[in-house]
From TrEMBL:
<keyword id="KW-0325">Glycoprotein</keyword>
<dbReference type="InterPro" id="IPR006918">
    <property type="entry name" value="COBRA_pln"/>
</dbReference>
<dbReference type="Pfam" id="PF25079">
    <property type="entry name" value="COB_C"/>
</dbReference>
<protein>
    <recommendedName>
        <fullName>COBRA-like protein</fullName>
    </recommendedName>
</protein>
<dbReference type="InterPro" id="IPR056900">
    <property type="entry name" value="COB_C"/>
</dbReference>
<keyword id="KW-0732">Signal</keyword>
<feature type="domain" description="COBRA C-terminal">
    <location>
        <begin position="227"/>
        <end position="421"/>
    </location>
</feature>
<dbReference type="GO" id="GO:0052324">
    <property type="term" value="P:plant-type cell wall cellulose biosynthetic process"/>
</dbReference>
<dbReference type="GO" id="GO:0010215">
    <property type="term" value="P:cellulose microfibril organization"/>
</dbReference>
<feature type="signal peptide">
    <location>
        <begin position="1"/>
        <end position="31"/>
    </location>
</feature>
<dbReference type="GO" id="GO:0005886">
    <property type="term" value="C:plasma membrane"/>
</dbReference>
<comment type="similarity">
    <text>Belongs to the COBRA family.</text>
</comment>
<dbReference type="Pfam" id="PF04833">
    <property type="entry name" value="COBRA"/>
</dbReference>
């Protein structure tokens, strides 16, 4: 078989460009997604004691999601009673509607709804309305970010229910809103009664009956349109690759009563702290991508054995402060992340500890854990220092850019790989920093296609 020298490649410029695009694509599209396969919110319903006509229960919500949280205006939990139950009273939460309690003459229940919806109380309610883990305005932090605040709880006193573990019927059709859609809850199922340790740890008590409900999140259910996008730049190429046009919506058909805004509106925020949480309508600054959140990744500096990246998160929504925000990044060099400035960090290792290419970043309490509404303060920044691994490190082939970016658990739209800032000298076979494996693959492909062409 004739072995053609590389010389004719120059003539086949188009082929080369094509192959380069292909090579770039191959190095970027290690597509996988389930970063948090077991992530869920588990609702635990502990019947603590029986009453004359029902029971006292503590309902606890555990956010077992690594990087997805519920922020203001907060969660709303609903279910349908299986029998004729009513809620006599509540602590640490409240039903949004009382419903028709006209059948009751002496004592009036808190709620007679067949399908009640419960919301959290605001912080600072009187102590006699609180229970442990209640009253956070519906905010539920993610489990990695802060296990302590990833739990919410309220107490209900249920009437017209069974008064034994045989006659009580489990509620049905649980729902969890944030307050928008996104979560789907499974059926309630009996589990062994929860055991509780007294504060001194010397006595254990237990619930008389416990059931669980597991709710899982789907971005598809939550919103059909993406909510964030990624832009890229580097010190070795002055091109700034913007977010893809219309990544989240187009300016022309941005669905909002006011369209998009060219400058800050006269008054923002002060969103109602009314009873039932409402989804906040976005008030977006005009951009070509119309994403409320932009993540900018800048390859800032190259040292002998390290390299440095600057990440900026910009909020373009005038109507929203993002509290307890988080960012998940996937990049092959995260296994050698040496230092992170201004953000908290934890590796996620979605494949056990086999590949540490995914990390979660979030703000430092009281410093930048609040991503302020659009405007001069509407951004947070961090720099990250990576140690180079000689076997894989490269500025070629877009290697220095992240594979995947998630903001608050939502997948962000990336620019197409062939638009990434490239090294000034972009010829595939001669780029010095190209990964050896890819270079060989490139050459091989090039030659085989040339052979076919000739
Ligand atoms: C929910 O999360 C918990 C904690 O990670 C896990 O033990 C449980 O198996 C999960 N449940 C489901 C149905 O995924
Ligand atoms: C109900 O409770 C009794 C004792 O209180 C227990 O013996 C029985 O196993 C329980 N039944 C179920 C179905 O849990
Ligand atoms: C639960 O939802 C199903 C399907 O939406 C419905 O058929 C059923 O009547 C509901 N059950 C209750 C108790 O509301
Ligand atoms: C907006 O317009 C673009 C192109 O004009 C179209 O592809 C897209 O489906 C439209 N989106 C909506 C929500 O109407
Ligand atoms: C964001 O937070 C600041 C400070 O707490 C507040 O003044 C502003 O009104 C908030 N903006 C929105 C949109 O809630
Ligand atoms: C990934 O990180 C974990 C915990 O930091 C460590 O035990 C493990 O060895 C790492 N795996 C690799 C391949 O670096
Ligand atoms: C990078 O991390 C891997 C696995 O965590 C380790 O084996 C390797 O020695 C590290 N490389 C450098 C240059 O620190
Ligand atoms: C910078 O990157 C862009 C996009 O890949 C490329 O078109 C351009 O030629 C590069 N600039 C230089 C000076 O190499």
């Amino acid at each position: 078989m004739a072995w053609h020298p590389p010389a004719p490649i120059a003539a086949g410029g188009q082929t080369l460009v094509l192959l380069l695009a292909l090579c770039t694509f191959v190095s970027i599209s290690d597509a996988y997604d389930p970063l948090d396969p077991d992530g869920n919110i588990t609702i635990k319903w502990d019947v603590m004691s029986w009453t004359g006509d029902g029971y006292v229960a503590v309902v606890t919500m555990y956010n077992y999601q690594k990087y997805r949280h519920i922020q203001t205006p907060g969660w709303m939990m609903g279910w349908s009673w299986a029998q004729k139950e009513v809620i006599w009273s509540m602590l640490g939460g409240q039903a949004t509607l009382q419903g028709d309690c006209s059948k009751f003459h002496a004592a009036i229940p808190h709620s007679c709804m067949r399908s009640p919806t419960i919301v959290d109380l605001m912080p600072g309610v009187p102590y006699n309305q609180q229970i442990t883990n209640c009253c956070k305005g519906g905010v539920l932090n993610s489990w990695v970010q802060d296990p302590m605040s990833s739990v919410a709880a309220f107490q209900v006193i249920v009437g017209q229910a069974g008064t034994s573990n045989i006659t009580v019927k489990l509620p049905k059709n649980f729902t969890l809103m944030t307050p928008g859609p996104g979560y789907t809850c499974g059926p309630a199922y009996r589990v062994p009664s929860t055991r509780f340790k007294t504060p001194d740890g010397r006595r254990t008590t237990q619930a008389v009956m416990t059931w669980n409900v597991v709710c899982t999140y789907s971005q598809f259910l939550a919103s059909k349109a993406p909510t964030c996008c990624v832009s890229l730049s580097s010190f070795y190429n002055e091109t700034i690759v913007p977010c893809p046009t219309c990544a989240c919506a187009c300016q022309s058909n941005f669905s909002s009563s006011q369209g998009c805004l060219r400058e800050a509106p006269a008054s923002t925020g002060g969103s109602s702290t009314g009873l039932a949480p409402q989804p906040v309508a976005p008030l977006l600054h005009c951009t070509q991508d119309m994403c409320p959140i932009r993540i900018h990744w800048h390859v800032k500096q190259n040292y002998k054995s390290y390299w440095r990246v600057k990440v900026t998160i910009s909020n373009r929504n005038y109507a929203m402060n993002y509290s307890q925000w988080n960012l998940v990044l996937q990049h092959p060099n995260l296994n050698n992340l040496t230092e992170v400035f201004s953000f908290s960090y934890e590796g996620l290792a979605p494949y056990g500890n086999a590949i540490n290419n995914t990390g979660m970043f979030w703000g430092i309490k009281y410093f930048n854990d609040l991503l302020y509404q659009a405007g001069p303060f509407g951004n947070v920044q961090s720099e990250m220092l990576f140690e180079k691994d000689a076997a894989t490190f490269s500025f070629g082939e877009g290697w220095a850019f992240p594979h995947k970016v998630y903001f608050n658990g939502d997948n962000c739209v990336m620019p197409p790989p062939n638009a990434y800032p490239s090294l000034p000298n972009k010829a595939c076979p001669s780029a010095r920093h190209v990964r050896p494996f890819l270079r060989h693959a490139c050459l091989l492909l090039l030659f085989s296609i040339l052979l076919v062409l000739l």
